[in-house]
Amino acid sequence: MLLKIRALPLISGVILLTLLVAACGPTATPVPATEAPTTAPAPPTEAPTAAPAPATEAPESEAGGTLRVGWTQEPDTLNPLVYETVQAGLIFREGLYETLVGVSTELEPEPLLAQSWEMEEEGRKWTLHLVEDAVWHDGEPFTAADVKFTIDYIKEYELPGLLSYVEAIKSVEAPDDYTVVIHYETPLATTLYDLQSVWIVPKHIWEGISGEEKGPLTFPNPNPIGTGPFKLVRWEKQQEFVLEANEDYWQGRPNLDRVVFEYFSNMGTMLLSLKEGTIDVIPWEIPPTAVDELKENPDIEVAMQPNLYYRWINFNVSGGGNPALTVKEVRQAINHAIDRQFLVDLIHQGYAYPGVQIIQKASSLWFNDQLEPYEFDLDLARSLLSEAGFEDSDGDGIRENEEGTELAFTLLIINRWPEEVNAAEQIKSWWKEIGVDLTLQPSDAGTILGQTVPLAHDMYLWGFSGNPDPTFSLNIMLERQIGMWNGSGYANPAYDELFDTQKETMDQEERQRIIYEMQEIVHEDAPHAILYYMNAIGAYRSDRFTGFVPMPTGIMSQLNAHSLRVVQQVQ
Amino acid sequence: MRTYFLNRLLQSLLLLLVILTVNFFLFRVMPGDPVRLLFHDPRITAEQQERLSRLFGLDKPLIVQYGYYLVNTLRGDLGMSFFYREPVAPIIFKRLANTIILLLPSVCLSILIGGFLGSISAWKRGTKLDAAIFSSSLLFWSTPLFWLGLAIILLFIGIWPISGMKTAGADYPNLLAQVKDLLSHMVLPLITETLVLQAQYTMIMRSSLLDVLTEDYIVTARSRGFAEKTVLRKYAVPNAMLPMITLIAINMGLLVAGAIQVETVFSWPGVGRLMYDSIIQRDYPLLQGAFLIVAISVIVANLIADLVYGYLDPRVRIGGAKH
After folding, report:
1. Residue B146: which domain range?
2. pLDDT band at residue A200 under the 50/70/90 scheme
3. In a domain, B145, yes or no
4. Which of A27, A82, A445 is the closest to B184 by Cβ?
């Protein structure tokens, strides 16, 4: 019996000893890939001992090196046809796969795998000319057959993520290796934008993935083969995600040798690691509260880009919740009782923009900048409510109308956004001043959706991420999306008609005019309160790397295919 | 002894069945439809949703799903993760291994340190040494683990790695390099977890030993002229260890779930953190699988503890009668 007790000290002693030995040794430095170029990359783990180069000298750049990226959320899958996370989107966009049409730094269509195109028959026929020297990661040449296969495949299996971008396509032809012809039943204004989102996959691999059980819906794609500038080395879930340069990339080998994504469970240690130098860049998750401190650090550059993301409060105008919300003046009144700039300053340290309507400010072509925002005006709010017949007749501080409907609402809010809970508390106090009572109900996303989809709620605070093409953002106000993604119950036949018209309007100016009008309509009806347009805030070690390409959504993002190709080390 | 063992084994299996059932129904009762949460495209049609429901087996009646669940579990098939779309069992086992790699040394060290400090504290009861050990144990026991972890990170940043289980992106020339990297990443989380854990065991050992020191056989031993150290080593401590074993076994379950704190602070890819993430993502199969594995571990740990106890203390085997 005593032997058992003695075993413990022995085991523990051995452990302690090995720990001491290990701890005294040097920490492992990431070993560069064996195909490294002849120039030796600088060892990343040591803090730079030299002072940063003075501003007047242009830093010398050098090929090679490993860029270490930090993130707190990982991709869900390596399958580009069924993924759901923006992190997966980032990996595909920056590295593994490519689309026919690229996303320019102004979010507009630009040539990528399709180098040029012609539109005929008023948009019913598109001819695309493909790049001729692109190869797949396994060496096979990229041809029009792959494009035809990909589009047919998505349609055949009705893959939920990408179907919406190809379902209007009637047929695809590949008359020769580098020409693709796409036919539509009716002209589609979003053709080029849609093609920005369709990842082209190799026919010779995916034609073998078939059937319901073993088909694309469940295929994890562990060895992704794409045409992109980087290849996958390995992915250890919630630890490391390693990419290496594609030597045969058709636009030229990227400067970097490797990109390593390191997973962090909490923001604090990730920021510490950036400051300490064990990682080189945090592309977009930096909270506004960390910005000022990072800005003071001479080795770190903060990169703030407008995002296609906004936070908003969506009202239930269907009558399924508090019927007072079916009255337009009530909704307009409470919109006037939110000081958005104040919230931006308080909650986001000023690093966001006051929200106006459902198209994001970053979408420069489509954002209607002539709309008048709802100014913070409590008196105007009060008069609007009185006009609508809501007065506080019983003196309890809450207005009601003649039928007895009280202006008392419940706001569902995601508890993982403590800063928005603070914002909601502030809103609650403003609304109290105009005689509206607000109850906050923090919950988690799943529970909230459980109430909002059947339109059983009053209002909820949510986030929304748009696409370069505005159709995606406009979609959520359609009557036919009720029960799916229309969380307000808004149903306006005039709006729906304009939506269907703009979808087929090939002339950009005319389409813009229609979309401007749609925003006007919704803005006037106020079925929601857009709070703010957020920024993608990133930061990187400017003493080590340079060349990040800034554009809306961030220096690295699910839309930015430009940065990782050209980023290089500073010497 | 054999009947005792078989008895305990049977009880454990029954308990397992109950846990399986509760496990299954618990997650089905949670609000929030997982399919909707998973597929975010606004244009997903009702048909597509139905298809996906069918694919993941969510459309069948609850009792049928339960039947499938039992059969599959016995075959080792714990289903497919909603989020990763990969089999659940390998994911969980790998993460459980990671948690054990961190917790096992921590528990061993804590038992050793706790047993040692607790003994001294009880033996020197009333002295300044006792007061020092007692109060520092209380301090560490009541300190929130994540706070302590962050403090340790700030103290030791730059000396040892502050996150992860390995250096991200590293390729190792040999096994030794890999082990060294792992060990250097273990240092800080291990220190944190051990500091908190040993405090608990110190207190347990202290009170257990204090209790034993009042027993008759201790008085007898002393009156027979044995040196104090001998009394301690041969009679007091071994008997004080018994309740400690029980308490440690009970602790096991909390340990694995509580590992989530140290795993979050140090980004350690363990099973505690996995469970938390699956809750947020409504990843039913993954969550179910993780709960199951953890429950099995707890049952096994308690079974072992019971057997060890039965071996060490003949009274339990024979059935209670004191000699």
Report:
1. 92-322
2. very high
3. yes
4. A27
